[in-house]
Amino acid sequence: MLEMWNPLGIVGVITAFNFPCAVLGWNACIALVCGNCVVWKGAPTTPLITIAMTRLVAGVLEKNNLPPAIFTSFCGGADIGQAVAKDARIPLVSFTGSSKVGLMVQQIVNQRFGKCLLELSGNNAIIVMDDANIHLAVRSVMFAAVGTAGQRCTTCRRLLLHESIYQRVLDQLLDVYKQVKIGDPLEKGTLLGPLHTSESRKSFEKGIEIIKSQGGKIITGGSVIESEGNFVQPTIVEISSNADVVKEELFAPVLYVMKFQTLQEAIEINNSVPQGLSSSIFTRQPGVIFKWIGPQGSDCGIVNVNIPTNGAEIGGAFGGEKATGGGREAGSDSWRQYMRRSTCTINYGNELPLAQGINFG
Questions:
Q1: What is the pLDDT of residue 301?
Q2: Amino acid 361: pLDDT
């Protein structure tokens, strides 16, 4: 008796604009090593990267006397993504994007009994306890909330501060926000580049209006920057954790700040959103750390301590729970997702003993 692991055949990979190479890489490399072919649909706004990556991979395949069609890509919109999701020849579809679109992909793939690997929205919180290293926490929060203009799934969206250090942390955070260099991200020292498209900029403006309508107080930022490109101000908002807008992911450098009194309250706030990707706590207490990473702690797929939410080490299993989709990319057993599993019982003899003492004579 043994288990056999065989390739699925074809793996479909649909990636988002914000990591147009990396997400492909950690899907396609494992899928190819496992013996599959890959069909890749890159984001419609990053077609040049899709083409360039495909040519690089095709060149490697050709040098090793392998058909370049082992790795195939498409440029286009939702129609191509739907075709990949519907195609019964593609047993596994790996999708990275919003929870809304991911749910649609999952429903289509499930209708044909295919498998999905979903990496969807994040709504990540950093908790700062009263015993935390404040300097370390502030530095981490600023980078996690502002870096890549808030356009990564592991961006810090919510900052939960113990009431005894609330104003102290907020004051320090405002000081470092004033030092943020905004401009061309290719220039050294620039932390905050533009949003991806004009639509992203409109979503930011709409988000700020909704925040204000739900009682949010803009502490800093909150406006677009009138210049060439889709630049917006890094924004900090004081708001209730119960506000509906806090439950949603605004893909921009907007940070919600709120107070808590006890660790239990902070954990409940962390877990109160539909998404469950990344989370982090800043503390020096072992008891707090092990509560946080245990069964009554964070319900996220990534549970960090004294590092920001966006410190996703791809050597570990990357992914999240709840509306983040439950998928895991990389990690010790990720290869299993890209293979078909068979349990094989082999009889090498000339006899077949039957159960329950049955004998045909």
A1: 96
A2: 66
Between CA 195 and CA 151 the distance in angstroms is: 8
Q: Supply the CATH classification number for the domain 124-305.
A: 3.40.309.10
Domain ranges of the chain: 2-120+325-344, 124-305
CATH fold of the domain at 2-120+325-344? Aldehyde Dehydrogenase; Chain A, domain 1 (3.40.605)
Distance CA(232)–CA(223), nearest Å, equals: 6
pLDDT at 37 over 80: yes
Catalytic residue of the set 119, 163, 187, 248 = 119
Q: Do 2-120+325-344 and 124-305 share a fold?
A: no
Mean pLDDT value of segment 219-223: 98
- State how far the Cα of 141 lies from the Cα of 129, in Å rounded to an integer: 13
- Clarify whether 119 is annotated catalytic: yes
Q: What rounded mean pLDDT belongs to the chain?
A: 96
Nearest to 239 by CA among 263, 262, 222: 222
| Cα–Cα distance for residue pair 184/194, rounded to 1 Å | 8
Q: Are 330 and 318 in contact (CB under 8 A)?
A: yes
Average pLDDT over residues 42-64: 97
